[in-house]
Task: structure prediction
Amino acid sequence: MKAFANYHPIVLFSYFLLVVGMTMFYMHPIYLMISLIFSILLSLQVNRTSFLSGLKWMIPFFLVAALINPLISHDGELVILYIDNNPITIEAIVYGFAMSIMICSVIFWFGCYNTIMTSDKFLYLFGKISPSFALIISLTLRLVPRFKHQIRVIAHAQKTIGMDVTTGSLIHRIKCGIRIISILISWALENAIETADSMKARGYGMSKRSTFSLFTFKKRDGLLLSIMLVLACVNVFGSFLGYNDYYFYPTFSAITYHPISYLLYGSFTLLVAIPVMIEFWEAFKWRSLISKN
Result:
């Protein structure tokens, strides 16, 4: 995922802002499925290993989140059974699955965002507006990945001296876990002091500091940003006309198949598919150049 990641940070941030916002705003089944499919495709391109390893807890989460809604929400007209005089409706079950699809899609999009929108890009966008806020957000976004990496390093090092947290008695595993957490906390405190000293040595907090950045806004960035805004505006305008509205309660509303609806579905598909199409186009150009040589 180098072709799309090489675009200007404002283009990348705008893309994820539009896609995540529209995924959370529209509960239309077609919109949700489109967003889920392309969030999975982009996740496989961006971080295939972490995405596949995360499915082992994402699938149970999807099922649990989908089944909780009919137990707490009893709205709907199509009743299939009663539990303690509380109706379980098909509308509530389908809405639960729709909510799970939306949540999973947003998680996948944020996973892609965390890989593509690096901390230097985020600081470039918001550093001049609010340097302290941008720094805090950047450090927060890197906190969990760094802690996960460091705890794996510590666990592997402890395993070589017989302190394996996955084997032995319960008391032994608890002692190993406490030891790993203690080492991780010590590393975190030491790393915080080193970060503070490094920031002070580089003049953080001083007024009239100059900054250097490699990011330049090019014609292709302006073109792609314009295309994204046009596609998003088409869907927003469609929502004002009511062509992409969908309701689960009191019963399912009909999915419209009007020409305008096809235009909205197509524009949303093009919007979320932009990174995938860019990657395929760059791969096609690369193979064409190789074949010519």
